[in-house]
Design a protein that fits this description.
Helices cover about 60% and strands about 0% of the residues. It has about 110 residues and is mainly alpha-helical. Helix 2 runs antiparallel to helix 3. The radius of gyration is 13 Å and the shape is globular. The chain starts with a helix and ends with a helix.
Length: about 110
Amino acid sequence: ERQRTTAQLAGLTDIVLRGMVLFPDSSELHTSAFHTLVLLARPLGGKEGMLFHRTMVNSSGILNMGSGNATNGTAVMMDSMRRFSSNEVLQAMSCWSMVNIALVPSQKAMLVKL
């Protein structure tokens, strides 16, 4: 938990999403990025699969991309999922990251609106 807190406070989520934007054709990078998001998106504390009423350390949510607009990070993720639709491992990691993001009701509502 301490390492994830440090990573979140350091803005690792933004860095990972920016890497996906800077290297749009690297399926290996995108798969690894989604795996990182799986770990970062899981809310701190509690047990696996629990619903949380607060988000991560960064109260604006996992997908803010520095702008405060969660849609930007989600758009990066959805674009990657579309472009690499035949990559089963990437699809599994991306779906898993979305599940973890949806553990926070406010973030789930944002995902459902898409």
